[in-house]
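Narrative summary of target 7.
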Amino acid sequence: MGPHEGRKAFTLQTVPASERTTKPFLATHAGFSLHAGVAVRGGDQKTLERLCRYIARPALAEGRLSLTPQGRVRYTLKTPYRDGTTHVVLEPLDFMARLAALVPKPRVHLTRYHGVFAPHSRWRAQITPAGRGSGVKVADPRTPAERHRAMTWAQRLKRVFKLDLTSCENCGGQVRVIACIEDPAVIGRILAHLDRPAPPSVSPILLPPARGPPGQGLLKLS
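Modeled conformation, tokenized:
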């Protein structure tokens, strides 16, 4: 794409070329490089977090992007290439095309598991929390829609917002939903009886005619 389709990117070489040095546990083949010289000791959470942040870093740093007086995109390399390249200059359309090439395709697995964690390992079902793996063949009688609705709204609120609606605030016992009240007038009377101000969201004028999310109703628990 762009005016320089099929051509190599224009680069600026401002430092002398460095000699190629071989490092231990480093392999390069067919354009791919494998670096196996980094190890993390068991229990070293700080080093593990730093390694994970490095692996999950974005494709480029926005702070090293700039525009040239001619309107081209210039990217400053953090570490010069072996041939002395320190900057890469691209046309805007070429730059967007190269960024689009880095976006993975939909429904493509970006994480690969090996050994006992591999999808077809016979030991995977014995070490995964959900017991998933080719070693266990348990037929699920539920339909896809039933599996999608397996998690209740209370469980979703607890998982996302840490709002536990299944336990009583006073005694800590388990509660259950016995009714869902959505009438603004009834909600106002209940709150008035409890000597609590009614929230503005339950006003008859502000409420839409259609059914809203569970947060706009009043759940009666016991």
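The longest helix spans residues 45-55.
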